[in-house]
Here is the input.
Amino acid sequence: MSGPQNGFPALKIEKLKKTYKNGFRALDGVSLEVGAGKFFGLLGPNGAGKTTLINSVVSLARPDSGTVEVYGKDAFKEFREARRMIGVSPQEINLDKFLTVEEVLIFHAGYYGVPKKKAKDKAAELLERFGLVEKRDHRTNTLSGGMKRRVLFARALMHDPEVLFLDEPTAGVDVELRYKLWGYIRELNRGGMTILLTTHYLEEAEALCEDIALIDGGRISAQGTSAELKERYDARNVEEVYMKVIGDASN
Amino acid sequence: MLLTDRTFRTLLSREVLRFTRVWMQTILPQILTSLLYLVVFGIALGTRIKEIEGVPYLEYILPGIALMSLITNAQMNSSWSVFDAKRERYIDEVLISPMSNLQIALAYSLGGTLRGVVMGACTLLVGIPFVGINVENPLLLIVIGVFASFAFSSLGTMVGALATRIEHISFLTSIVIQPLTFLGGVFYSVGMLPDGLRLATFFNPIFYTVDAARFATLGISDLNPYPTLGMVFLISVMAFCGAWWAISHGPNLRY
Here is the structure.
């Protein structure tokens, strides 16, 4: 995984706005740039707009206005190319209940145009990597929550995405799996994959992410490297930065 | 590109796997139901109506019963498939993939089409030894079966995409499709109906598919067969446009 290396940022979002039908303004002109190969953390309270932002990039949410580019490809006009470069591990578990674990992975690859032989090899690699070999023939609705989460991760990686969105990936995951996952994600990032992570675990974000953006009320409140943010807000860690930026805003 | 695209073929094969994997639920009971229709209606009504337009009654109703099975299965398959995927959110995986809305709507609709055609063919094959008919124009029957199945499978895709509650799906099956099937000339010729009911039958899309299938199977029909074939084609195009629109704009799909 080396990324397209075409000189464009992995993700370029400009003035993205989204108001839901119930009047809730989820994104209020968000502009954001994620450099190629970066490990990027998007932090914010519930309802801040994190998931809407991710969903807007892959057209699961329909933004009212604004532009999104993935490695220079317009995410709406050139959606095939743009979406092919993105893998999403969603916050909510959404596995196809009719399929076995291995089928979920192979069908997912097919949805992204990966040839079957290549998909089978990749599935074998990821089943091994995520400790799912014994569960390969089990239907997904028979798995435990932790196992389902592993399948979601593996699924997101099946088509070798250039950019990986991890939306609250460690919610409900035990400590051992969490450490294993982070080890693997770090490895992928070192290989050139751009990672955009949303999480509530601030110490995790600080340990993993090179760049961090804080989002609140559909707006980016602060952005920079963790060192820059700590210096700017005179804080000892990202948690303090978060409390100063988000906490002050809520008060 | 549209049909050969691996992304599209994968979703279509998933749709086929869905109904073949649980064939004990999706195929077997439906064949039994069709047989029961044939036996119960054939025997009960056959004692009173010996023949219609010179054709023995059981023979007369077989194409319609096959169509009934085809239509019910086609619409049930795609409506439940889309609704289930939406309710449990695994449709997101498809929506965020590089597939276009057109490809998604087509894959779901063709999956149901295939189940409808398989079920219609099974009903006909199971029924033929009881009734003993030779299909007049098998090729035409296949074309009609495919278009009728595509039309009602597309309707199923549309309703599955628009439905926000499980009752909406049941509504389509029990309140719309089933009564229209019974009133679509499966068990009688529209020539036997009073004027008002005959006129109402012309607004029932199922009537055109049944009449066309009867023409292809037995060589008899209530209407001039060629405009009827055109109508079946038109219904399937309109239904698919509805399915495409619903996949593109349906509630709880793309927010």
Observations:
- Residues 94-160 of chain A form one domain.
- Chain A touches chain B through 32 residues (CB under 8 Å).
- Residues 175-190 of chain A form the longest helix (16 residues).
